[in-house]
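Re: that backbone. Tokens:
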């Protein structure tokens, strides 16, 4: 795919073979994000695991200290008093069975995160084919299947993100906006890295962090020096 002029100009600022320290990379992100909108800063982590094996799955959630910079729309599946509790706690939508045909038949997907109380998972399970491929299925590991909907909503609104491996054993997650300060981007990124390192499977052998790259929505990737992030790899060598 042909790259645009802005991308090519931005790419000149980055040494392809260099592994950057986090703060320097965050500064470059701000320099190379030249779109007319506030670009998202994304992290891409290639891990030395095989996600096809259940004991090597890496999945979880972390609250970014400075949020994602995005206004997150939350849908809560609950019943009884929990519906009113969810709406009072800041959920954008809340309900039960009546939401299933709206999502299944009408294609309604005007939300970014789905939270469910445990007693509603039978209902939510019927939406697996719709929500699953979009990464919207509630999951206990991510804290989105819980009786404490108020805390779950507060965490999501505060900047909680879910991370998990794709088929190529790479984690792709947002860690802020280009308008954030260098310190805010760096703080968020460290919070993500701490969580991913703690989630290292005991069965993972060899180098855990294969490569770590950050980029803005329209900008070139910047590779980071992974030796600065904890002892995940030193323990494996």
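Recovered sequence:
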């Amino acid at each position: 795919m042909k790259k645009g002029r802005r991308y090519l100009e931005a790419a000149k600022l980055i040494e392809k073979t260099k592994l950057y320290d986090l703060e320097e990379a965050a500064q470059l992100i701000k320099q190379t994000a030249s779109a007319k909108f506030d670009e998202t800063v994304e992290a891409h982590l290639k891990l030395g695991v095989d996600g096809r094996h259940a004991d090597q799955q890496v999945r979880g959630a972390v609250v970014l200290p400075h949020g994602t910079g995005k206004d997150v729309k939350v849908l809560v599946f609950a019943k009884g008093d929990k519906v009113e509790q969810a709406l009072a706690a800041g959920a954008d939508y809340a309900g039960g069975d009546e939401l299933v045909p709206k999502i299944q038949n009408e294609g309604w997907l005007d939300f970014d995160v789905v939270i469910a109380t445990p007693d509603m998972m039978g209902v939510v399970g019927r939406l697996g084919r719709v929500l699953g491929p979009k990464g919207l299925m509630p999951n206990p590991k991510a804290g989105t299947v819980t009786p404490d909907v108020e805390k779950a909503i507060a965490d999501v609104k505060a900047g909680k993100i879910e991370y998990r491996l794709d088929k190529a054993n790479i984690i792709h997650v947002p860690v802020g906006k280009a308008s954030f300060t260098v310190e805010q981007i760096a703080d968020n990124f460290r919070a993500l890295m701490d969580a991913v390192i703690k989630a290292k499977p005991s069965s993972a052998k060899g180098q855990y962090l294969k490569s770590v790259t950050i980029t803005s929505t329209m900008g070139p990737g910047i590779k980071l020096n992974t030796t600065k992030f904890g002892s995940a790899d030193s323990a494996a060598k």
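DSSP finds eight helices and nine strands in the chain. Confidence is low (pLDDT under 50) at residues 231-237.
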